[in-house]
């Protein structure tokens, strides 16, 4: 008798269902479903203004959705405060890094653990983050704003990792970076995902650099989901053009 081998499907960590959100009376995201499974990298693609940032900020609790729900590990978290989401294991690295430019790298990492009240754990986590990003150890005493854009992005991720999240939401980590730095940042994201088995939801416009590290992809156009699936079909430029 032959056995049927199937890949185990990882449990869903974040489940977004029918989410709509906007600003005042203006609806920007319409009825979007999206799932992030444990350990995967899901890339959220779409043009400028497609609603990607609005969607991830709504998931994280920075914007109150007008309808729909967000569940984390099966628990309803729609409209929960973002500080509680951070404590529960969700991290957001905002567009433009969100670092404190006039503080040192070390101080930034310590501020990344601001909701933790265990100095010993903070030190252990800081050491672990510096093992993952050796440049942050080398530059520990440097003023963060004087580092390169790529290094600042690593620091922003390092700050998010201080809480040992299970899922990290990255909003356009490639923005403003030279192509060689984009490549390095993508490799760092893939490495963090592998080493920590941490799920990633990454907003990107840079299809060329984002697709190689994606395990699943969602594409938004004018606030609606128009593609959901594997990254491979999007490698076909002509097909991609029909979506964008
Ligand atoms: N704070 C705000 N107030 C009002 N409208 C906003 C606000 N932020 C974004 N918008 C509008 O919502 C729409 C979606 O913006 P959003 O930033 O979510 O898109 P995006 O896909 O992330 O784009 P980008 O790649 O440029 O960041 C845009 O038309 C934008 O002008």
From TrEMBL:
Transmembrane segments: none annotated. One of its GO terms (biological process) is L-amino acid transport. Keywords: Amino-acid transport, ATP-binding, Nucleotide-binding, Transport. One of its GO terms (molecular function) is ATP hydrolysis activity. Residues 14-244 form the ABC transporter domain. SMART domains: AAA. InterPro entries: AAA+_ATPase (IPR003593), ABC_transporter-like_ATP-bd (IPR003439), ABC_transporter-like_CS (IPR017871), BCAA_Transport_ATP-bd_LivF (IPR052156), P-loop_NTPase (IPR027417). Belongs to the ABC transporter superfamily. This is ABC transporter ATP-binding protein. The lineage of its organism: Bacteria, Pseudomonadati, Pseudomonadota, Alphaproteobacteria, Rhodospirillales.
């Amino acid at each position: 008798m032959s056995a049927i081998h199937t890949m185990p499907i990882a449990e869903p960590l974040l489940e977004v269902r029918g989410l709509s959100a906007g600003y005042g009376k203006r609806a920007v995201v319409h009825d979007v479903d999206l799932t992030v499974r444990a350990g995967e990298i899901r890339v959220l693609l779409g043009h400028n203004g497609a609603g990607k940032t609005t969607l991830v900020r709504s998931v994280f609790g920075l914007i109150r959705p007008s309808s729909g729900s967000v569940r984390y590990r099966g628990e309803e978290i729609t409209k929960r405060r973002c500080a509680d989401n951070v404590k529960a294991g969700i991290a957001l690295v905002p567009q433009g890094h969100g670092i404190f430019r006039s503080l040192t790298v070390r101080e930034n990492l310590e501020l990344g653990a601001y909701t933790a009240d265990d100095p010993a754990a903070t030190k252990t986590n800081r050491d672990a983050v510096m093992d993952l990003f050796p440049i942050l150890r080398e530059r520990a005493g440097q003023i963060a704003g004087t580092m390169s854009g790529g290094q600042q992005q690593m620091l922003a991720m390092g700050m998010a990792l201080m809480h040992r999240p299970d899922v990290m939401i990255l909003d356009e980590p490639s923005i403003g970076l030279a192509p060689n730095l984009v490549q390095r940042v993508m490799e760092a994201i893939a490495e963090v995902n592998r080493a920590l088995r941490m799920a990633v939801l990454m907003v990107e416009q840079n299809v060329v650099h984002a697709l190689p590290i994606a395990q699943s992809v969602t594409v938004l156009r004018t606030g609606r989901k128009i593609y959901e699936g594997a990254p491979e079909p999007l490698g076909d430029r002509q097909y991609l053009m029909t979506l964008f």
